[in-house]
What does this fold into?
Amino acid sequence: MSAAVLSESSLSYHDSHDAPLKKSVDECSEPNSTDDASTAAPETPMVSRSASIVESTASVPPTIDNTIILHNVSHSGPSADPKLAGLIKQTRELSELVFDEDCLTEITKKTRWKLTLLATSDYATLCGFAVSRITNGALSLAKIAVPVEFRGLGFGKLIMEDAIKNAKKQNDVYEVCLSSLSTAVTFYQQRLGFKAMTGVKVKTDFEVVEGQVFMVKKLRPRPKGK
Ligand SMILES: CC(C)(COP(=O)(O)OP(=O)(O)OC[C@H]1O[C@@H](n2cnc3c(N)ncnc32)[C@H](O)[C@@H]1OP(=O)(O)O)[C@@H](O)C(=O)NCCC(=O)NCCS
It folds into this structure.
């Protein structure tokens, strides 16, 4: 089973501005984990979800087989495809819900953060998103989220495996790194082969805050001096 994959060339959006950063994208964390990051991911009652997300779940839940991965999606500029605009809207809503901020404001040409979306093949329903960039030979994953109602269906793993696969294709990318909530460590460690790091020697995008765990998945050895 695999999701279809589309690259940026198939998309009709264009980045048109470099908005100032609202909040640095340096942690894969949720808002309610401030002083005690060991708290579980917040459960979101159906009633508080946005209308578009509720609408999207009205029919049969999506499966991996009918999803599509969209890479390097731009979120601003003239919209030629209303279906993509709907996905962007759902992404903002999910981001606000899960991280208490709109991650898209941090994705600009200047910051080089990239947006990946997992959606149903008809572009109607968001199944997850990730924000990542390559820095100093490492793929940094700043954010990943799957809508609450679609968790446990394999979408998170699918997004991560796709990111890892694409990073592996680039010979100058040596590892994938992220700062994990303690609640998600098992997901990365047991399902995706990440290792928790204590003494980190490579330059990274992350300042790990208390309660979070810096995690790395090695792709290939770093040449000396890199
Ligand atoms: C973490 C998250 C992206 C996982 O997405 P998901 O679609 O539910 O995960 P999957 O269905 O692909 O899970 C794959 C496997 O990992 C397991 N898993 C998922 N989340 C897990 C977690 N938090 N802890 C331990 N195992 C987890 C699943 O049980 C599944 O196991 P299986 O292969 O034995 O069936 C999702 O829970 C989420 O959006 N959480 C809120 C935001 C967040 O915490 N992001 C990560 C911050 S670092």
